[in-house]
């Protein structure tokens, strides 16, 4: 079985200083600031980066990600 495709790889656990309202779960949450890049994967190994680095904010309560923190 051949496993390949494109997947996001993200890292970073830095927390934002202020709490923000999350539109996904409707709660006020601290967000994690994460960096992500899209990779071409082969056999679950990220081989080739196909995008630049992006900053995303991840809600620590529901796990939804946003391009920027709302609120
Ligand atoms: Zn949320």
Shape: elongated
Helix content, binned percent: under 10%
Query: Span from first to last CA?
Result: 45 Å
| Sequence of secondary-structure elements | EEEEE
Features:
single chain, 71 residues, binds zinc ion, 0% helix
Overview of the structural elements:
The protein has 71 residues and is mainly β. It has one domain. Strands 1, 2, 3, 4 and 5 form a five-stranded antiparallel beta sheet that branches. Zinc ion (ZN) binds next to loops.
Brief summary of the model shown:
The protein has 71 residues and is mostly beta strands. It has no helices and 5 strands.
Furnish the topology, listing elements before pairings.
Blueprint: E1 4-21, E2 28-42, E3 45-49, E4 54-59, E5 65-66
Bound molecules: zinc ion.
Residues 22, 24-25, 27, 29, 59, 61-62, 64 line the site of zinc ion.
């Amino acid at each position: 079985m051949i496993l390949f495709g494109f997947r996001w790889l993200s890292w970073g656990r830095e927390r934002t200083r202020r709490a923000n309202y999350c539109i996904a779960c409707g709660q006020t949450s601290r967000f994690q600031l994460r960096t992500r890049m899209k990779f071409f994967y082969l056999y679950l190994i990220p081989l080739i980066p196909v995008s630049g680095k992006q900053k995303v904010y991840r809600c620590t309560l529901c796990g939804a990600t946003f391009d920027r923190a709302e609120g």
